[in-house]
């Protein structure tokens, strides 16, 4: 079992190691983590082909982890919508930033509300409702065509630096690499294609399959079932602290990409690995 003072046995075999923090864990989280190996690797990649542009899931030894990447805010930058907002709205940068922040905040809030109220709508609809709120909050009233152009920015989010590098290295090391996102399948497929990430995924898993949203445990359980693994043999990689807390509570291993160096959530499980960049995820797990 890994604790705050433990080191991975893989360290001794490495000449270099990413800066990775292993926070202290509560007894409950440590118990869940007792069945999880944090660093696993093999030398051969799985076969290509499969659904859409994505590689088919390979048969891998039980010691390998199924790596589940969050898409929005982890692999792709949701704030890259600001370019489109500025072009369409023609307002000062400070107002563009405020609309963007409100849009993202309401997008997450509405997903929570939808799940709690048992009133599911696909994430594209949630994103549209959140945009409508953000525009109204700042007395902006673009027409329907302009709103469509703004929404379309979510199909063209920019990948974070190192995203392709990290996914490539992890895949070549033999890990199954999948997306696990609140996005509905169509919007995830569009974004993966446009961002150039699709060839690096073994599969794309959506919360839409269980008609709720993260951090509902059902989403993480769905990923484990699809990967045909115990939930403790799956690892979520996310920049969203609330997502990490939810996955950990459900029993997943977690890596938090903490770019802002924020404190962890006060509710839910703490991450068992913490890095600040996507390439550092690969440094840790390859």
From TrEMBL:
GO molecular function, one term: hydrolase activity, acting on acid halide bonds, in C-halide compounds
CDD domains found in the cross-reference section: HAD_L2-DEX
Pfam families: Hydrolase (PF00702)
UniProt keyword terms in alphabetical order: Hydrolase
NCBIfam families registered for this protein in UniProt: HAD-SF-IA-v2, HAD-SF-IA-v3, HAD_type_II
Family: Belongs to the HAD-like hydrolase superfamily. S-2-haloalkanoic acid dehalogenase family.
Protein name (record): Haloacid dehalogenase type II
Organism in which the protein naturally occurs: Haloplanus rubicundus
